[in-house]
């Protein structure tokens, strides 16, 4: 019984993936502070989202920048609450690189190693990787050959680059697109070395400062997250505050910012590099370059995804996922709107992107179906199964002597080890489900907490039955001898 339910449990993991909601037609709503507040509060009520910050801009003006709910330590979320931007950070790294390009200090098609000699990898392919290929994710670097999450921990950008020395690209540079966080860690280290100052300082001087983003900074690892930037996972639909699991993320996911600051950033992106007061942090040409698809992928530029909204309008966006928080930003060039969301629930729930899509629908006059979270039902089922599995294990232990008396083959004990083997390697299975992405074992409970509880119960129960039956078999053989 312990092993027969496991295939069904594995399949249940996929149920937790976010599902798209079908749009319905409705009269266009006014995109103003009141409409945004109503939409966000309705979403929070439907999903039990504890805290979120939102910015909506139009042209060079801020329509609304506000916070809702609370942080894990109970503080009220405001427009100035510092939260994690996660992979939205990639667009900041791309702009930092473009500043160096504008100054003539590097060129996008230069080999990375020409400016960053410390960037060495196994095999010859890495020598051909260009700066552009880091930013458009066509470098050939891959989670399949360099495990940045499950590998040895790193704490600085220099260490992140050094940790790649024994890895090799999985493909020839410039031949395929693959999302890989270390691309942007190498790019951020390039900014440090060529720019001559730490990456955080470079952003402060040339991006955050000129745009008036006084709340913003960067984090290297989860230890650098302030209390306001930590988040939750949901169990049975209820938020549970947890610390972010260990990981390095500067350059690829380390920006810390606020709704107030992201409003200025969105305006600069929609205004040729000029912020709300007209201060330029980039040129129109550089901004356009980051919003232009690569030669390999029509859906990715330099730190931005490129696509269309359900209404067919141009969409330039990027999501960001940590295990206890998410972020999302979107530019709508046709209407001149910008949207940013930071939510303090993890990637399992996708609240930032889901809410961002609803704000896009508001701008376009579309109405989406009410939000829902099917994971609460799945959690309930898995938690109900846990005591059932435990009871089956107790029954197996108590009847171990009877099992041995039936002279059953010891080979029939092998399935009892399977839950433990799955528990030990579950991060590899999850990585496969996430299309080959690298996942550390400690990150899996953040994705599937109740599944891991059930798997742990099954593992302990299987081991207990295995030991009890092995002892019973030995005792029967001793009696027979």
From TrEMBL:
Q: Which residues form the Beta-lactamase-related domain?
A: 36-358
Membrane in keyword set:
yes
Which keywords does this chain's UniProt record carry? Membrane, Signal, Transmembrane, Transmembrane helix
The record lists the membrane-crossing segments as 376-398, 410-434, 446-468
Q: Would the keyword Membrane turn up in this protein's UniProt record?
A: yes
Q: Please provide an example of a Pfam family that matches this protein in its UniProt record.
A: Beta-lactamase
Cross-referenced Gene3D superfamilies: DD-peptidase/beta-lactamase superfamily
Signal peptide extent: 1-26
For this entry, the protein name equals CubicO group peptidase (Beta-lactamase class C family)
Species annotation? Saccharothrix saharensis
- Source organism phylogeny: Bacteria, Bacillati, Actinomycetota, Actinomycetes, Pseudonocardiales
């Amino acid at each position: 019984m312990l092993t027969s339910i496991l295939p069904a449990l594995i399949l249940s993991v996929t149920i937790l993936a976010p599902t798209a909601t079908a749009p319905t037609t409705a009269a266009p709503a006014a995109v103003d502070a009141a409409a945004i507040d109503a939409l966000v509060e309705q979403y929070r009520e439907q999903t039990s989202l504890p805290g979120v910050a939102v910015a909506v801009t139009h042209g060079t003006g801020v329509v609304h920048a506000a916070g809702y709910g609370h942080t894990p330590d109970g503080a009220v979320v405001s427009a100035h609450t510092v939260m994690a931007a996660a992979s939205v950070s990639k667009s900041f790294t791309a702009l930092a690189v473009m500043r160096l390009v504008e100054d003539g200090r590097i060129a996008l098609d230069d080999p990375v190693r020409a400016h960053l000699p410390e960037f060495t990898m196994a095999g010859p392919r890495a020598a051909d990787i260009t700066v552009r290929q880091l930013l458009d994710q066509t470098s050939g670097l891959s989670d399949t050959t360099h495990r940045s999450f499950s590998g040895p921990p790193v704490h600085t950008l220099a260490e992140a680059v050094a940790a790649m020395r024994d890895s090799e690209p999985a493909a020839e540079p410039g031949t395929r697109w693959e999302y890989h966080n270390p691309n942007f860690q190498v790019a951020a280290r390039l900014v440090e070395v060529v720019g001559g100052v730490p990456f955080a300082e470079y952003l402060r001087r040339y991006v955050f400062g000129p745009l008036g983003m006084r709340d913003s900074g960067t984090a290297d690892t989860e230890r650098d997250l302030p209390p306001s930037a930590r988040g939750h996972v949901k169990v049975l639909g209820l938020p549970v505050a947890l610390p972010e699991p260990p990981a390095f993320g500067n350059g690829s996911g380390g920006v810390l910012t606020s709704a107030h600051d992201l409003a200025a950033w969105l305006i600069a992106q929609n205004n040729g590099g000029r912020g709300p007061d007209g201060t330029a942090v980039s040129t129109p040409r550089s901004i356009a370059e980051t919003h232009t698809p690569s030669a390999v992928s029509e859906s990715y530029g330099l730190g931005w995804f490129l696509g269309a909204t359900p209404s067919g309008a141009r969409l330039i966006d990027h999501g960001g996922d940590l295990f206890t928080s998410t972020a999302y930003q979107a530019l709508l060039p046709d209407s001149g709107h910008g949207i940013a969301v930071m939510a303090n629930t993890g990637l399992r729930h996708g609240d930032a992107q889901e809410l961002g899509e609803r704000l896009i629908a508001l701008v376009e006059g579309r109405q989406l179906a009410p939000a829902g979270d099917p994971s609460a039902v799945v959690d309930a089922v898995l938690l109900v199964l846990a005591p059932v599995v435990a009871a089956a294990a107790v029954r197996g232990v108590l009847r171990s002597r009877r099992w041995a008396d039936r002279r059953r083959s010891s080979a029939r004990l092998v399935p009892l080890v399977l839950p433990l083997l799955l528990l030990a390697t579950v991060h590899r299975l999850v990585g496969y489900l996430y299309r080959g992405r690298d996942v550390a074992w400690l990150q899996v409970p953040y994705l599937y907490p109740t599944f891991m509880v059930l798997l742990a119960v099954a593992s302990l129960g299987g081991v207990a039955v295995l030991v009890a039956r092995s002892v019973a078999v030995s005792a029967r053989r001793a009696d027979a001898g």
